[in-house]
Design goal:
Pfam families: ACT, CM_2, PDT. By secondary structure, the chain is of the alpha/beta class. The strands form three sheets. Strands 1, 2, 3, 4, 5 and 11 form a six-stranded mixed sheet that branches. Strands 8-7-9-6-10 form a five-stranded mixed sheet. The protein folds into four domains: 78 residues, Chorismate mutase (Chorismate Mutase Domain, subunit A, Up-down Bundle), CATH 1.20.59.10; 86 residues, Periplasmic binding protein-like II (D-Maltodextrin-Binding Protein, domain 2), CATH 3.40.190.10; 84 residues, Periplasmic binding protein-like II (D-Maltodextrin-Binding Protein, domain 2, 3-Layer(aba) Sandwich); 86 residues, Alpha-Beta Plaits (2-Layer Sandwich), CATH 3.30.70. α4 runs antiparallel to α5 and α13 runs antiparallel to α14. The N terminus is likely disordered. A hairpin with a 7-residue loop joins β13 and β14. 32% of the residues are buried. It contains 14 helices and 15 strands. The protein starts with a helix and ends with a strand.
Length: 393
C-alpha cells in the first residue's frame, strides 16, 4: 500500500514540472515581447554583411566579364551605358518595399555600379567648379564617387573639354524650378556638336556661410547671380544693406569668404565643409523650399532607349505666319507630349529665333520618327540634341 502511494507521488512530480514549464498563451506573449539579445542581433547583422560583400564582389566579377564580352574598347567611356544604368535603378525602385526610402537604395546601387565601372577605368566628368558647387553634387549623384571629377572655370569650358575628349562627359545646369532657364547652357547648344546623354534633378538648399558664423559681422556677400535670385526675399528681409558681390560660382564665393571676418557666401553645405565656413543661419535661406535645379549630362554620342526617355530638339524656324503652329502640330498628331519649350535668338540672323523643345519619348520611337520627319518639311532646320533616360527619383 505504501509502495503504491510512493509510485503515484513519483509520477506526479514530473507532471507538475511539465505543467510548470508548459508555455501558456500568456507566457508565449511575454516571450514575443521580450527584448532581443544584442549579441544575437549583431551576429545576424555580421552574417548579412558578409553575404552582401560576397554578392558585391560577385557582381564586380560579372561586370568585368561584360567588359570582356564587349571586346577591346578604346576607353572607359566606351563601356558606359546610361540607358542600362537607368533600367537597373528603376528596378531597384520597383522592388523596394521599405523600410529604406527609394532615394537611399538608388544611391547605394549607383555607388556599386560606379565602382564596378571604374574597374575598367574611372570616367572623367567635367563640371562647373571649383570644388563644392552644386554641379559637383550633381556629378556625384549621377556618376557616383568612383568617377573622376574635373572642376572647370565656366559652362563654356565644360562643353569645350568634353568636345576635345579631355573629359568623357560633362554636367551643366539647364534650369531652376524658381528662376527658370540657364541661358548660357542653351546658347552653347546652338553651335556645339555635343549630345545630351542624361539628366539629373538636384534639390538645392542655399545656406548663408561665413568664417565667424555671426550675422552682425557681415558687410558683403559673395554668390552666383542665380543664388542671389533664389534668396532675394530672405536677403531683403534680413540683410537689406549688405553689399552683394556676384561671382562665377557659389563655391568661388565660399573660397573668397573664408578670407575675411566681414564676408559671407551663399552656397551649399558641401562648400561649407570644403572651405571651412560656419552656417550663419542653421536653416536654408532660399525663398522656395522645393528649390530644384535640373542638370544635363553632355557627351559625344547618342545612346539607345531605356524605356522611359526624353528627347530634346532645337528647331530653327522660317519667319512666317503660323511658324509656331507648324512646329507643334506634328507632335500633337502623333500623340507625343511636350514637356518644355523655350525660344532663344538663333545668332544666325537678326530677329530669327530657335526653339528648344523637350519631348516625351526616344528618337528611335516610331511616333517620334514620323513627327520629326513631318516637322522637317516646315522649318529651316531640326537638330536632335539628345534622347536620354528621364531622371530616376
Amino acid at each position: 500500500m505504501a509502495s503504491s502511494k510512493k509510485t503515484s507521488a513519483s509520477k506526479a512530480v514530473p507532471a507538475a514540472r511539465k505543467a510548470a514549464t508548459r508555455k501558456t498563451p500568456a507566457r508565449r506573449a511575454a516571450a514575443k515581447t521580450a527584448p532581443p539579445v544584442l549579441e544575437d542581433v549583431r551576429a545576424q547583422i555580421d552574417s548579412i554583411d558578409r553575404q552582401i560583400q560576397e554578392l558585391i564582389a560577385q557582381r564586380a566579377r560579372f561586370a568585368l566579364q561584360v567588359g570582356k564580352a564587349k571586346g577591346k574598347l578604346a576607353a572607359a567611356v566606351d563601356y558606359y551605358r546610361p540607358e542600362r544604368e537607368a533600367q537597373v535603378l528603376r528596378m531597384v525602385v520597383d522592388r523596394n518595399q521599405g523600410p529604406l526610402p527609394d532615394e537611399v537604395l538608388v544611391h547605394v546601387f549607383r555607388e556599386i555600379m560606379s565602382a564596378c565601372l571604374a574597374q575598367q577605368e574611372p570616367l572623367k566628368i567635367g563640371y562647373l567648379g571649383p570644388e563644392g558647387t552644386f554641379s559637383q553634387q550633381a556629378v556625384l549623384k549621377h556618376f557616383g564617387r568612383s568617377a573622376h571629377g574635373l572642376p572647370l572655370a565656366s559652362i563654356e569650358e565644360v562643353f569645350q573639354e568634353v568636345d576635345a575628349g579631355n573629359a568623357d562627359f560633362g554636367v551643366v545646369p539647364v534650369e531652376n524650378s524658381g528662376q527658370g532657364t540657364i541661358q548660357v547652357t542653351l546658347d552653347m547648344f546652338l553651335t556645339s556638336p555635343l549630345k545630351i546623354c542624361g539628366e539629373v534633378e538636384l534639390k538645392v538648399h542655399q545656406y548663408l556661410l561665413s568664417r565667424t558664423g555671426r550675422i552682425e559681422d557681415i558687410e558683403r556677400i559673395y554668390a552666383h547671380p542665380q543664388a542671389f535670385a533664389q534668396t532675394a526675399g530672405w536677403l531683403r528681409a534680413n540683410l537689406p544693406k549688405v553689399e552683394k558681390v556676384p561671382v562665377s560660382s557659389n563655391a568661388e564665393g565660399a573660397r573668397r569668404a573664408r578670407g575675411a571676418d566681414d564676408a559671407a557666401a551663399i552656397a551649399g553645405e558641401s562648400a561649407a565643409h570644403v572651405y571651412g565656413l560656419k552656417k550663419v543661419i542653421m536653416q536654408p535661406i532660399q525663398d522656395d523650399r522645393d528649390n530644384t535645379t535640373r542638370f544635363l549630362v553632355i557627351g559625344r554620342r547618342l545612346f539607345p532607349p531605356s524605356g522611359h526617355d526624353r528627347t530634346s530638339i532645337l528647331v530653327f524656324i522660317h519667319d512666317k505666319p503660323g511658324a509656331l503652329f507648324d512646329v507643334l502640330s506634328p507632335f500633337a498628331r502623333h500623340g507625343i507630349s511636350m514637356n518644355r519649350i523655350e525660344s532663344r535668338p538663333s545668332h544666325q540672323a537678326k530677329w530669327e529665333y530657335a526653339f528648344f523643345i523637350d519631348l516625351a519619348g526616344h528618337v528611335e520611337d516610331e511616333a517620334m520618327k514620323k513627327a520629326l520627319a513631318e516637322l522637317e518639311k516646315h522649318v529651316a532646320k531640326v537638330k536632335v540634341l539628345g534622347s536620354y533616360p528621364v531622371a530616376v527619383p
